[in-house]
Design a protein that fits this description.
Layout (H helix, E strand, L loop, with lengths): L10 H16 L14 H6 L1
């Protein structure tokens, strides 16, 4: 559950970068898929 007061503060791009780095470098993944709900422009920008 995320606190309602953190939305729109720009945390997701940083979180996404860290998760991708962890997946590729620490876990040795070769591919990571991502998606967003159509109409959610903020999520689309994070991709």
């Amino acid at each position: 559950m995320r606190p309602s007061n953190i939305g729109g503060q720009g945390y997701m791009p940083e979180v996404a970068r860290e998760l991708l780095q962890h997946g590729f470098e620490d876990l040795g993944m070769g591919t990571i898929w991502r998606a967003y709900y159509e109409g959610n422009q903020k999520s689309k920008r994070v991709q």
